[in-house]
Amino acid sequence: MHKQEAEPLRKSDPVIPAAATSEETATTQIVLAFDDNRLASMLFGQYGQNLALIERRLGVVADQRGNHVTVEGSRDACAMARRVLEGLYEQLKQGAELVAGDVEGAIRQALAQGSLFDFDPATARPNFEEINLRKRPVRARTAAQDVYIRALRRHALVFGTGPAGTGKTWLAVAYAIQLFERKEVDRIILSRPAVEAGERLGFLPGDMREKVDPYLRPIYDALYDLMDARIVERALQAGEIEIAPLAFMRGRTLANAAVILDEAQNTTSMQMKMFLTRLGENSRMMVTGDPSQVDLPPGQSSGLAEALRLLAGTEGIGYATFTHEDVIRHELVSRIVAAYDRAAPVRPREGKG
User: Fold this and answer.
1) Which of 26, 92, 288, 349 could be stapled to 39 by a disulfide with Cβ–Cβ 3.0 to 4.6 Å?
2) Does residue 237 sit in the same domain as residue 281?
3) Range with the lowest mean pLDDT among 5-9, 30-34, 237-241, 294-298?
4) Residues 289 and 264 reside in one and the same domain
């Protein structure tokens, strides 16, 4: 990739810079050229949607012409935009896929680190943690995700709490797969309480697996996206990957396993205590949930909220707390979550993030 910088103007087509009264408000222009036209097209996104996201988030103007892009804005904003584009292009050169969440994650990382004018994407060591899987690496896209992955590596029990779309379950499944692929555990056990918006299993048609599968579909989706489908099927048949409702955990001791409890806000106090006490030798346990989305009957307290309160400060337990700022789905989701958070009554803190 070739790049050149100019301040304020060096381009064949003259552009009049915005008026500036100080160095901070002066307009800078940089031109980036990417060698591979196909990768450049993937970098810019369909109809330039990735560039549009960079423009909105960093406050720059990006003009695409073929495999070139001209970025105009403040000096720091242009430097961060360059960092984002060069870093993502380097990922594409290494064969990685690129989705909107990756672009948002790169933008957030650039904003958190500020403008580094000597940044070299080919040699720089990434600051955010990464989970290396056989199928593809999974990178932290926000500071909270980075804290979460570090906690998963340090602690036998980790609570990840926050709104939907922040990657809590996704990263927990990815870490469990990494442990399984490295043979650090013999099996993966994935569980959820079968409580969803007042519906009951008995009203669903079919046998027990057909009743349970709709509740566990998000976990299946994560498995198949992060592992080869044939390996998942074989592991499911061999019992090396087990997906079951929380009620099936009673009476078991889960040794040499990576155990995930998803949607933990819908556990009762007794269920949560039962689950946490299943932790066996050489096992890792991950509990994820959104305390603001409890679907238990009125008057019944959440086992997740109680556990966070009772276990706060307990040695050996890790915590990661996500907010709407960590949502990595469509950017509108973050705004929706923030709007609901503003309208919600103030709740007491349930744990340390």
Assistant:
1) 92
2) yes
3) 5-9
4) yes
